[in-house]
Amino acid sequence: MKIGIAGTGRMGSAIAQRLIECGHDVMVWNRSPDKTKASQAIGARVAATAAELTTGCETVISIVTNATAIESVYHSASGLLSGEVRGTLFIEMSTVRPVTERDLAAAIEKKGGQMVECPVGGTVGPAREGKLIGLVGADDAPFQRAKPLLEQMCRRIERCGAVGAGATMKLAINLPLIVGRLSAKRWRSRSPWA
Asked: How many CA atoms lie within 13 A of 167 on its CB side?
């Protein structure tokens, strides 16, 4: 399968490596072109623009830092949605608010594409090994289309509902982790033993 990956930071690069090892033809793009070098070194092709990913791939995965990055990657003049979108499956894996995912899905559907959101639990190691936990929000048809690929990236896939539900679940899971870290930091700063 021809797969594009927009966002080749640590997680995107690890996912690219995993998919290349699974036998896929992977093309990558990043807003900072130097971040594509690691993926290129293991066999990924590098796209000149985000639009080239959409035009040249059946499925495009995006995993970027925040909603501002999603706006830039998808909606800029040479962004993913400026390419040939009709028939393309987008798997959006960033950790962002549910409204960001819902708005993006509407924009993709308006251009004739399909979207599955799948924020993930796990770090670089599990990403390389295909052992992430995927929290999916999607309608049935795009989910069934994405499922074989998600199974190559994730050891566990939880379908949470429609687009937006995956982001809601990821934020719900992250909240106690953040509170725990903040509490531990506060305790250490006040403890005479720290």
From this structure: 24
* C-beta separation of 155 from 132 below 8 A: yes
pTM beyond 0.85: the answer is: yes
Confidence of residue 189 (pLDDT cuts 50, 70, 90): low
Q: What is the CA radius of gyration of the chain?
A: 17
Residue 152, SS3 per DSSP: helix
Q: Per-residue pLDDT for 118 more than 70?
A: yes
CA–CA distance, 71 with 156 (Å, rounded to integer): 29
Supply the CATH number for residue 60's domain: 3.40.50.720
3-state DSSP call for residue 46? strand
Amino acid of residue 91: I
Q: Give me 8's structure tokens.
A: 């080749």
Query: What is the pLDDT averaged over residues 82-92?
Result: 96
Domain residues for the domain of 6 are: 2-190
Average pLDDT, the chain: 92
Distance between CA 25 and CA 22 in Å, rounded? 9
